[in-house]
């Protein structure tokens, strides 16, 4: 049995992890726990990676039965003088190998970026703008894509990208 622990209670993060790991491991147990990321509530740039890694690291160090620990951190990153939403995934296996991947990034509207720069969190800003209260669960990608992409599918891409080095260990042996 392969034991995977996800550093979140968010259903989309757990489901995305289950979706990808079940494609590679047939006897699978997924569990979850919450841990602090150690970064700002709305992380930017390198802190998005740092938050994902610190979540995964906290769990793998405390659960002796875990084969893999998955940390997922959402944040924003600046490319070409524009701000993009970024979901970073860090997976650590029981031997201590650390791997990162990202879901596809997408540009954020200036109106949202202005509010983020005031210290607000992305899900709060989107909920306020749209009069909703479910962005944390279904993701801004659901709104911006007009329902064509859901948060689980989006995060699954990042989980897969982070898993690639761990399922191709020979290629990544001396990275």
Write a short abstract of this structure.
This protein has 175 residues and is α/β, with parallel strands linked by helices. The chain is built from 7 helices and 6 strands; from the N terminus they run E-H-E-H-E-E-E-E-H-H-H-H-H.
Q: What distance separates the N and C termini?
A: 28 Å
Q: Under the CATH scheme, which class of the domain at 2-103 and 151-167?
A: Alpha Beta
Report the total helices. Answer: 7
Using only C-alpha atoms, the radius of gyration works out to 16 Å
| Structural class estimated from helices and strands | alpha/beta
Helix content: 40-55%
> What is the averaged pLDDT score?
94
Shape: globular
Strand count? 6
CATH level-3 fold name of the domain at 2-103 and 151-167: Maf protein
Q: What is the annotated CATH architecture of the domain at 2-103 and 151-167? A: Alpha-Beta Complex
Stretches with pLDDT under 50, minimum 5 residues:
none
Summarize the biggest pleated sheet.
6 strands, mixed
- The percentage of residues in β strands lies in 15-25%
- The succession of helices and strands, N to C, reads EHEHEEEEHHHHH
